[in-house]
Design goal:
about 170 residues, two-stranded parallel sheet
């Protein structure tokens, strides 16, 4: 029993309140994205505990959403990448806000391994931020994060001003 994670009656699994952001993220992970944070395969060095495997994550999917999956989650990462063209996503009015210190940056269009141009219809703004630091609104926000937030607001204002009611 890993930290009580096999107890299906824990509030961790049974809390269905609207404000449980972890629950909605877990649903996306189990059903769509498959962004599990697991250890490296055996024989490779790993900073993550070996108990954290895809099977462990999929078991959590079943405990948190009983009856939703026949055997664990069913992430559809390949179909999501195909639908949105992965690295080559082309969506009009899509703002990317990324942080240099975000451990997930390599999974974004700001990855060091890709060269995605920033355009007016699909701008990319990078701060010195970390994961989700662009969501903070407190007065102590890093200046580079604040600049990205302001840039995002400016683009949204432009896009909203250009909107025309469908006829």
């Amino acid at each position: 029993d890993c930290w009580g994670t096999y107890n299906a009656n824990q509030t961790w699994y049974t809390d269905t309140s609207v404000n449980d952001a972890y629950r909605s993220w877990t649903w996306l992970t189990c059903n769509e994205l498959g962004f599990f944070q697991d250890s490296a395969p055996q024989g490779n060095p790993s900073l993550v505990l070996r108990v954290l495997t895809p099977a462990y994550d999929l078991r959590i999917c079943n405990l948190m959403f009983p009856g939703a999956f026949s055997s664990g989650g069913n992430p559809k990462a390949d179909s999501i990448n195909q639908l949105y063209q992965g690295w080559n996503v082309q969506q009009n009015r899509l703002f990317f806000a990324n942080g240099l210190r975000d451990p997930w940056r390599e999974a974004t269009v700001s990855s060091d391994s890709v060269s995605v141009p920033s355009t007016d219809s699909q701008p990319i703004a990078v701060s010195d931020g970390f994961h989700c630091s662009d969501l903070l609104a407190a007065s102590a926000v890093d200046a580079t994060v604040h600049a990205v937030q302001q840039k995002g607001l400016q683009y949204m204002a432009l896009w909203l001003a250009a909107w025309q009611k469908p006829v």
